[in-house]
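[Q] Does anyone have a clean structure-token version of this?
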Amino acid sequence: MASSKFNLVQLGHQTALGTAVDPTIEIPMKAAYEDKRQVHTAEWDSGNWTPTTIVAQVASETAFTLEGTAFFEMMPVLLSSGLANVTASGTPPAAIHTYVVSPSAIGVPTPLTALVGTVGMTGTSGTPFVTGPMIKLKDLYLKTLTLSGNINDKAVMCKAEFFGTTYDAGTSNAGFPQIVLGTLPTLEMINALKGVLKIDDTTAVGWAWSAESTFSCALLDWEWTLDTGIEPAWCLTDNVTTWSALKYTSPSCEFKPVFRTSSVNYALVKAKADALTYQDMQLLIAGSTADRSLTINMTGLWDTIPTVHDEQDGEVVMKPTFRCQTPHTVTSAWHWLTVITKSLHVWA
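[A] Here you go.
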């Protein structure tokens, strides 16, 4: 059963896998979920004229997607459920969450509980959202996160895909009431036009972001996609009815920018790609004040032979792909990906 465009979403950080909580974080994004339970019917002949069947649920899983505008304050909520439940350094304002991603070891993410519904439900007292058919999803882990920016739309858009264990429609399928949260905390949208891209060659002694070269023009379009590399432990081949742990495969991260072709950008991209030069790249998006920012530090390679003669909106542009990889030439301070968020809140 698939549902989409649900615009009443609340999330809560669980303390452990398998134990749902009352969601306390209101999410200003659209939601979609899918109840992926599997039911099997075993037919058998009991010697009666009427065939007899046995029906049983053989698997339980849910899929959940959040899609909408990206906010600085929402990034830790999503990343903590897919990378690691890190402790913020500093206090609001300027609470900093740092996520260091390594393909060699899984982090310790915190699963989420979600309540999903829509506007228009009214309780017996006439107060909106007091009761209604909200459904509960638990043990939600972030599988993929995609951020995208466009020079025309200005704002950064976000799509987060999760997997979870169970779908719960409440007692007798009556639904769950909305948790009363009060005033939504201050949020700020992430402006794509404020993104600054810097790059430099990776050195043998590891990564450093202080002396990188800045691209000479604003990004026209870009998309950053992270696959956390986690899956349900029974997924694919384990053939178990339910899952109660995570399986770690390997994370992947790609950055696909579009920017104007120039001699400077040619040297920063095409020449480096042809030479198979590993590079450290930083995408920094600042907020309206110093208390908010999103920093994505990546080590990797440009896609093989990116074109330098493509046309978009009447301009000659480059459309390469940067993939996170760790060079074998590094002798210390190995790096793959680090995501740093600075915002006004520390979510409980």
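[Q] Thanks! Anything notable?
[A] DSSP finds three helices and 24 strands in the chain.
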